[in-house]
Amino acid sequence: MAADLAPASEPLLRVRDLTTEFHGDDASVRAVDHVSFDVAKGEMLGIVGESGSGKSATSLSIMRLLPPQGSVTYGSVELAGTNLLALPERNMRELRGRRVAMIFQDPMTALNPYLRVGEQLVEGAVLHLGMSAADAEKRAAALLERVRIPDARARLRSYPHELSGGMRQRVMIAMALLCDPELLIADEPTTALDVTVQAQILELLSELRRERGLSILLITHDLGVVATTCDRVLVMYAGRVVELAPAAELFARPLHPYTAALMRSLPRLDAAPGARLESISGMPPRLDRGPFRECSFAPRCRYVHDACKVADPPLTEAGPGRLRRCVLPLEKLG
Amino acid sequence: MNAPVAARAQSPGARAWRRLRKNRLAGAGLVIVALMALACFLLPALLHLDPTTTHPAFRHQPPSAAHWFGTDGLGRDYAARVLAGGQTSLLVGLVATLTCVVIGVLYGAVAGYYGGRIDEVMMRFVDFMYGVPYMFLVILIMLMFSESARGDPVPVFVALGLVEWLTMARVVRGQVLSLREREFVLAARLLGASDFRVILRHIVPNVLGIVTVYATLTVPTVIILESFLSFLGLGLKLSWGQLVSEAVGVVNPIAVYWWLLAFPSAFLAVTLLCLNYVGDGLRDAVDPKGR
């Protein structure tokens, strides 16, 4: 199976059977369930899923910054051969921001309101590269210009409340890239932004990827975002991988009913006027009831049949570079 | 996109200061407290007032041109004594408050940031300390200093600071509990900042606003506490509280030395009132939504 997951070259990030659980007072929730994937150098991998499908828990597990009630119970995360899950906290701290950086959804709250933009921006460079504040500031200003913030030098003196949402997200990106990381995890980087700014930010991420050979793990619930920017897409449902495919192929022909249903629920320009937008009926399954005894998507699946109820289907190969977790014969999918 | 950057970037602190200045009551309070402090610290030197020289011939003189606030039972100039007493009262308020800010902020920030069992243990200790009668604590601390230090400012500073930090720790811990969930804290950790660095650089500056408010309200509390200690004979050699306590002992229905009681009481009351107004004003300025 591993061979099928791996892209051509040796992957930068190799996640195997990652399992993360959150422990409540009387039940545990398996938020991430044996998730495996690779991110090659310079690749942009998209992780798509609805709220609660384990996307963010996956990224926080990789960074080892889960909240106290959460823990990785199984699996491995390797960055260029180093198992991050076994690394002492000290080394992990040196690695965060230096080799793996992360940006998130809400740029409004991700900047400390009491510090000037410049002060926060240089923090990483001072911490990791041992730069003097002045050098770090030069570097920060250059990066701000690179992410197209006008009047970068003056902006370093601004407070976060003086910047718009798009600007703050650019600042966050500059902050993440300051130490030249190999991997950037972008957790819903455009969700809080309006559509035009969204497009600019995505364009910027693509450019930076080409320029720096940066690998990007793009986490989103927005299929449109994935379609335009990612090389490969991982679809998650109920904490598990349900489909993995190159982006173009996934959109041309989804091989899992869930992916297909997601795509049907997107508004389309060529839809007949007055046509109703489809939605997926039902709710995602509860994750605190132990292992699945049937396909996790079965209660909501329009193709559900007897084979789905027997056991939880395994992740199987479905064409070159494609994986899916479904027992429905390919030709029966719409 | 190319709009010029606003001429002066305003820090959250600067914005709070601007709002504070618009609040008349707090502004007036601040001015009066400042004047009071200036008077206490500068006037004695400027007017060559001496709070210690006795004049047996001029005992219990009512206020006059020579002695604005009259004289006390030993013929000492009462204006000089009230001002000198103000020096120590204000100093006690300031130093004890600073002690309590330093201890309270660090303690509260650590408890709130780590949460869980650490928080549980640290805050239960605070609860325990709350349960111990503070007078008992203060007296105990004062007794730990040698007999000769009695009436010295240092034991009083320490004792009051050690009692007053509890509330500060609780306030800070509550704030930090919500702050640590904010994304900039996660962002800092994602950049590889250590816990120590996150607390000092990202958490503490964010609680300083509310800390300033509580510190301002702690100053009058401490001054009152010190006065109370003086009243019991455990306080400083010369402070507003001590003057009042002395006056109460002297005033009787036959000889009403009203000035002995009136002046230090008035100074004490005005200072406390103004400090409370400043504190309230600060609270509104730091958190305009919380009115």
In short:
Chain A has 334 residues and is of the alpha/beta class. Chain A contains 13 helices and twelve strands.
Structure description:
By secondary structure, chain A is α/β, with parallel strands linked by helices. In chain A, 32% of the residues lie in helices and 22% in strands. Chain A is built from 13 helices and twelve strands. In chain A, the strands form two sheets. An eight-stranded mixed β-sheet of chain A has the order 6-7-8-3-9-10-12-11, sandwiched between helices. In chain A, strands 2-1-4-5 form a four-stranded antiparallel β-sheet. The longest helix of chain A has 18 residues, at 195-212. Chain A is globular, with a radius of gyration of 21 Å. The two termini of chain A are 27 Å apart. Chain B has 291 residues and is mostly helical. Chain B is 72% helix and 0% strand. Chain B is built from ten helices and no strands. Chain B has helices at 12-22, 24-46, 78-114, 116-131, 134-144, 153-179, 183-190, 195-231, 240-250, 258-286. The A-B interface holds A 63, 65, 68, 93-98, 101-102, 104, 106, 109-116, 120, 123-124, 127-128, 150-151, 154-155, 157-159, 161-162, 172, 175 and B 1-2, 4-6, 9-13, 115-116, 182-184, 186-194, 197, 201-202, 205-206, 208.
